[in-house]
Amino acid sequence: MSTLTIRLPDDTAQRLKTLAQSRGLSMNKLVEQLSAHALSAWDTENHFRAMAATGDVQKALAVLDRLDAADAANAQTSSR
């Protein structure tokens, strides 16, 4: 495990401490969770970019059309 020292404005550090306390977490655990969330979003974006670079646009649009049709059908069923 690595130790990381970061510099934050005092008000940002205080807000993070307040957030950690409100969640019942240590600052270390809060920063670990926020980091994991940021990395997950980055990994997801990179995954979709890689898929888009090799994907078939027409197939992707067909999938979106099917999803739109399913959403419309579900909306009609819900409104009855």
Write structural notes for this entry.
With 80 residues, this protein is mainly alpha-helical. The chain has one domain. The chain has 3 helices and no strands. It comes from Rhodoferax aquaticus.
- Give the strand content: under 5%
Please give the count of helices.
3
Distance between termini?
56 Å
Average of pLDDT:
91
| Helix content percent band | over 70%
Element order, helices and strands? HHH
What is the count of structural domains? 1
Whole-angstrom Rg: 21 Å
In terms of structural class, how would the helical and strand content be classed? Answer: mainly alpha
Unreliable spans: none
Profile the largest sheet: none
Could you tell me the number of beta strands? Answer: 0
What characteristic shape results from the CA principal axes? Answer: elongated
Protein name: Ribbon-helix-helix protein, CopG family
InterPro entries: Ribbon_hlx_hlx (IPR010985)
Organism: Rhodoferax aquaticus
Task: Describe the protein's topology.
Layout: H1 10-22, H2 27-54, H3 57-78
Short description:
This protein is 79% helix and 0% strand.
